Amino acid sequence: MTDYLALSHQVAALCRKTAQFILHEAKTFDPSKIENKGLHDMVSYVDQEAERRLVAGLREILPAAGFITEEGTAGPAAERQEFTWIIDPLDGTTNFIHGLPVFSVSVALLHGPDLVAGVVHEANRDESFRAAKGHGACCNEQPIRVTGAPKLANSLIATGFPYSKFAQLDAYLKVLGSFMQRTHGLRRLGSAAADLAYVAAGRFDGYFEFNINSYDVAAGLLLVTEAGGRVTQFLEDGDPLFGREVVASNGLLHEEMQEVIREFWG
């Protein structure tokens, strides 16, 4: 039987080492060395090399596992295996390229359909957020817990902005406007992995985003649930991992957040 807690420690060490590589490259990074994968969707050699290092290290930790990766360095995504790593080597690439110090390494493990281990390493603060199924969540080995804010009126909410596929932009802007009026404020860090880790750590009370990928949120979803929070799609439980939209909260705010979204979201 796989020891997910011990495995999460190994993954955390690998993520920290990868984050150190990213920070080293940030000192001399040349923004002209970027490639465009799509509209406003950029990648650098740093993303690609960080992913190669993660894939190599994770293959040593669990050789039989498959991979879902952002940059495809492990080859084409295989059919779902018993174990599957979900990797974002540099969540917050746009921040990294522009020298904004908010970006993360995110690694999660699926066992069948279940998230069982997850690590988000926020590089610039050297904060390692770690969770294993049934063992809670921690930051730099200190236990973390979601907030007890009972209402949106007591909350600080995080979100992300779409950078492509703007068909739902009008509805999204209306949702933003409603949250602005009902909360202490909205924040957009530019790293979904960090947003979710901060919900788990009680720095944000909730988070929502659409057009999001599994590798952006996988580790963070486990962090939030293991820290006592709740994660769903926008209007129902659904599948926040592969469903392309996420609402995460301390649990107390969840239905109120969904009500705000439901008012404008078809």
Textual characterization of the structure:
With 266 residues, the protein is of the alpha+beta class. It is built from 7 helices and 14 strands. Strand 10, helix 4 and strand 11 form a beta-alpha-beta unit. It starts with a helix and ends with a helix. The relative contact order is 0.14.
Report, as a whole number of angstroms, the end-to-end distance.
44 Å
Compute the number of helices: 7
Mean pLDDT: 92
Unreliable sequence segments: none
What is the succession of H and E elements? HEEHEEHEEEEEEHEHEHEEH
Going across the major beta sheet, what is the strand order? 3-4-5-6-7-8-9
Biggest β-sheet description: 7 strands, mixed
Percentage of residues assigned to helices = 25-40%
- Rg from alpha-carbon coordinates: 17 Å
Count of DSSP strands: 14
**Morphology:** globular
| Beta strand % | 25-35%
Secondary structural class: alpha+beta
Catalytic activity: a myo-inositol phosphate + H2O = myo-inositol + phosphate
Family: Belongs to the inositol monophosphatase superfamily.
Protein name: Inositol-1-monophosphatase
Keywords: Hydrolase, Magnesium, Metal-binding
